[in-house]
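In this supplementary section we document a worked example of the pipeline. Step one takes a protein sequence of length 191 as its only input; no multiple sequence alignment statistics are reported here. Step two produces a three-dimensional model, which step three serialises into structure tokens for compact storage. The input and output of this example are shown verbatim.
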Amino acid sequence: MGVIAGLIILAVLGIVIVIIGLVVFYYNRLVGLKNRCEQAWSDVDVQLQRRYDLIPNLVETVKGYASHEKETFEKVTEARQQAMKITGDNLAAKAAAENMLTQTLRSLFAVAEAYPELKANENFLELQDQLSKIEEQIQLARRYYNAVARDNNNAVMMFPSNIVANMFHFKKAEYFDLEEPEARKAPKVEF
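The serialised model returned by step three reads:
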């Protein structure tokens, strides 16, 4: 009896150690994915801030040539302020604000098309080029964030890591998607 009892205890102990090891493994994996999501969102946020910083210079440059387009300038400025206000985890609200900002930037560039001397202005051309590059970086950062969010969501939802995710209250990450198909395009900055 002593040998059998000892073997049973060792088997139970082995199973407990394996279960604890799996819980630790999946917990650490989920923490890593959560941190990658936060870091990836930070990268998106940095690119959005770069765009926010560029917009006032762009508006001022266009204002110098098209000062009577006050309503357009006000809309761009207001959309920028609304987008900058939204912080935290509300990605749906952030996406809606970014959609609005993209639309107002399009209207600003539409105004600029009516002024040939503005289209030839070196400062405007440089700002245009910078905005184009920033839009590309935003798109890349958004794609990376969404890929990391997908990986996190898979781990939170798939067996057996979903058991650990539920035990420790890990949540799915929200995707940063643009809702309007037209808003999926970067603002036109070429003339």
